[in-house]
Amino acid sequence: MARYNGPVCKLCRREGEKLFLKGERCFTPKCAMEKRAYPPGEHGRFSRRRSRESDYSRQLRGKQKAKRIYGVLERQFRRYFREAQKRPGLTGLNLLKILESRLDNVVYRLGFADSRNQARQLVNHGHFMVNDRRNDVPSTLIKPGDVVAVKENSKQTTFFKLLRQAEEVRTPPTWVESNLSNLSGRVIRLPERAEIDGNLNEQLIVEYYSR
Q1: Domain limits for position 87
Q2: Based on the structure, what is the number of domains in the chain?
Q3: pLDDT tens digits, residue range 136-169?
Q4: How far apart are CA 112 and CA 107, in angstroms?
Q5: Cβ–Cβ under 8 Å, residues 72 and 80
Q6: Quick one: three-class SS letters along 170-200?
């Protein structure tokens, strides 16, 4: 299973905005965007954006931003787009719903991880069960009604013990139901567009793949 293993702060700097790929660190002065808010590379500090970006450039950046936020590489992202085209409704919205229904994203939305990257690692290590069956595939698509829970053995680990004792709990979106006391949650329904990150422009992604 392919994944990006490079420095994630570099991705935020390339997009020119915080993508919150490191969880809580992104809200502190240690965030790279606070110190180096210019594109990476030898000439990044001195680069100047063009006065008018081309349509292709805007479409590419829109696609790349979505890929990086959800931690998906090109082949899988293109496959999701083809699946979104087959579903009834708007292709762009269907694509975002598919991305949101990935197991690693659901774990993140339930508040069991600080970032999608951390959620993916926890899933890879086999800490979660879906409908009472162990699942270590982050790309598994979760359907409404599915229950995601931490394995009983994993609940005894330091990470999940501290999670239960956390004073500040991130409020989950309304399309999922989280129970921090027993470290489980349920997907009630698929998210509406207003419940998905507003800085994503799905129309640019549709235009990119429709060229």
Answers
A1: 8-98+198-209
A2: 2
A3: 999 999 999 999 999 999 999 999 998 887 756 6
A4: 6
A5: yes
A6: CCCCCCEEEECCCCEEEECCCCCHHHCCCCC
